[in-house]
Write a structure and sequence with these properties.
Blueprint lengths: L1 H9 L7 H32 L1 H26 L1 H10 L6 H19 L2 H12 L5 H13 L2 H17 L2 H24 L9 H23 L2 H7 L9 H32 L4 H38 L2 H28 L1 H5 L8 H38 L2 H26 L4 H25 L24 H5 L1
Helix pairs in contact: 2-3, 2-9, 2-13, 3-5, 3-7, 3-8, 3-12, 3-13, 4-5, 4-8, 4-13, 5-8, 6-7, 7-10, 8-10, 9-10, 12-17, 13-14, 13-16, 14-16, 16-18, 17-18
């Protein structure tokens, strides 16, 4: 089978082995880990600039990501098409699906532009205390300028991820994350003659790094080998039939991503209504959790990629073996971090603070220590959640994921947290209980769906008609026309 030969060339490891998993996942773990360090450093610098800047950065950053995540989830799903085409040996179709993602990214970026003038009204409605809404608006407006480049970077990096060439993604992301940290330091505090921009500097550093990332991935994508092997440039045209397939599977993935992030964003914004201490402590707890969560994304993306390749190849049982082994790895990793959060919380929390108001700072740290207990508990279930949801998405079961996230986010996070924070004026720990319950329930739902096995018979790419048998390395004419 052509797909098997292609897959064998890609990996020197036995299919479904730990070696193969690590060859795909570790570069992604390092890549997402570098972005974790970037965001961690970003918040750390801002905490030393001012408590208000730290309090404003997370909700504004989360809300900007919330608006773009629907489009990210939709255009980013092209990587699953790449993985399945690659596994099936249909390499000449890969360039076409990447370009459909590019067209979607450009259209999406234009749709998002009106958010810039509306941002002030959005944060006034949210109603955070003191001067926080003004700072949130500044940060949000700047971040909007980088949205279209984030979408394009996601499409072109998804090309390499779908092929299993994750080392390229790692190198580019490490470089741009390092660039962001350097720019953060220069632009927040004012170094080498540059003015101290504080919160604005942090936002512009992120935007500049995002632009650089998109440019580098594009240059790598159009290299000669990719042009010849995958039609990376010649397939630039808009293809309605293929775009329809991308939207059929990508839109539910985008909706799922949007709902999941919206629930998180809504939670952070509502917690901010409880007070500045609660909001800042929540920011710290989530920022610490980034150290665990972001590398997990590397394993999740690797799971989707390998499942997609083996589904395209027509070998779901190897995909099952892969998922089992990823589960063992991720739960072991999360268990170690959970114990660290419970036994050594001060190691993480003590990094934050300006030292300008020791009493206020101590109050924040007390609350943050309590929140890390919640993080320790739910991060174990988050590992289950991410592994099994990624597995079924890699096969194409995006509609179920969308429905599950829609129901659970509304009933477990949105309504209960609103009642807690706005109607009954509950405390921060009650709100975090609802957030943790959402993670636990979603883990159970996706595990149940995975065990049902329906995903094994799915695929997102076209299936050649049974009466047509393409020659090795070639596509039937009817398949090309699709």
């Amino acid at each position: 089978m052509t797909g098997f030969r292609v897959l064998s060339i890609m990996s020197k490891h036995k299919p479904g082995s730990y070696g193969e998993i690590f060859s795909i996942a570790l570069p992604l773990v390092v890549s997402t880990g570098s972005w974790s360090i970037m965001h961690f450093t970003d918040r750390l610098f801002l905490s030393r600039w001012s408590e208000d800047a730290l309090a404003a950065a997370l909700p504004a950053g989360v809300l900007s990501f919330t608006f773009v995540c629907f489009f990210l989830g939709t255009v980013g799903y092209t990587s699953t098409f790449v993985a399945q085409y690659f596994g099936a040996g249909q390499e000449k179709r890969i360039g076409a699906v990447v370009w459909q993602g590019v067209w979607l990214a450009l259209i999406s970026g234009i749709i998002l532009l009106p958010l810039i003038p509306l941002s002030g009204a959005i944060f006034r409605i949210i109603g955070h205390p003191d001067n926080i809404p003004e700072l949130e608006t500044i940060y949000f407006r700047i971040m909007c300028h980088g949205m279209i480049f984030s979408l394009l970077s996601n499409v072109f990096s998804g090309f390499f991820i779908g092929l299993g060439q994750t080392r390229i993604v790692m190198i580019v992301n490490m470089f741009t994350a390092g660039l962001n940290i350097v720019l953060d330091y220069i632009m927040i505090f004012g170094v080498a003659g540059f003015p101290a921009w504080g919160l604005q500097g942090a936002a512009w550093a992120t935007v500049i790094s995002t632009i650089v990332s998109a440019v580098i991935f594009f240059i790598l994508y159009i290299q000669k080998e990719n042009r010849q092997r995958y039609n990376a440039v010649s397939a630039i045209g808009f293809q309605p039939a293929l775009m329809k397939r991308v939207l059929r599977f990508g839109l539910p993935n985008g909706v799922n991503f949007f709902l999941d992030i919206s629930a998180f964003s809504f939670f952070v914004l509502l917690v901010g209504r409880l007070g500045k201490v609660e909001l800042t402590a929540t920011n710290i707890a989530f920022n610490v959790n980034v150290l665990a969560f972001m590398p997990m994304i590397g394993f999740a993306v690797a799971t989707s990629t390998l499942v997609g390749q083996y589904i395209g190849r027509g070998d779901p049982e190897i995909a099952v073996t892969t998922v089992k082994r990823v589960f063992i790895l991720t739960v072991s990793y999360m268990t170690f971090l959970a114990l660290s959060y419970i036994l050594m919380p001060n190691i993480f929390i003590s990094l934050y603070g300006t030292g300008n108001d020791p009493v206020y700072l101590q109050e924040i740290r007390v609350v943050a220590r309590g929140l890390l207990i919640f993080v320790a508990v739910y991060c174990l279930f988050d590992a289950i959640n991410m592994v099994y949801s990624s597995a079924i998405r890699g096969a194409g079961d995006t509609a179920f994921v969308m429905r599950a996230v829609a129901v659970c986010s509304v009933t477990v996070i949105l309504i209960p947290t609103y009642l807690c924070c706005v109607v009954f004026h509950g405390n921060i720990y009650m709100a975090w209980t609802f957030f943790s319950a959402y993670i636990v329930i979603m883990a159970g739902v996706f595990y149940w769906r995975y065990r049902g096995g329906k995903w094994k018979s799915m695929r997102v790419i076209e299936t050649p008609p049974p009466e047509i048998v393409p020659e090795p390395g070639h596509l039937a004419e009817s398949e090309v026309m699709r």
